[in-house]
Design goal:
By secondary structure, the chain is an alpha+beta fold. The protein contains 3 helices and 4 strands. Helices cover 44% and strands 22% of the residues. The longest helix has 15 residues.
């Protein structure tokens, strides 16, 4: 059984960003996932890892704290 979208969002930010577990990217990010960051688009884990490495080098002490994580059926959104 897959995780609820809200649990997945919380887990993603806790493991990937707060703990810096790069290996969690391969586990949680589907190969066909498309991420938009402003005018930049990243597809799949390998492209995201480049972004992750850049962000972690610039903000090594980054911590994400949730103020809201809601969902509607199978989709989810996040604000922090």
């Amino acid at each position: 059984m897959s995780e609820h979208p809200k649990q997945t969002i919380v887990r993603w930010f806790e493991e990937v960003w707060n703990k810096g577990w790069r290996q969690a990217i391969d586990e949680m990010l589907p190969p066909d996932c498309l991420i938009h960051d402003g005018s930049t688009s990243l597809k799949g884990p390998e492209e995201f890892k480049k972004y992750f490495d850049l962000m972690r080098s610039a903000f090594s002490e980054i911590k994400v704290t949730f103020g809201y994580a809601g969902n509607r059926q199978e989709s989810a959104d996040h604000r922090h």
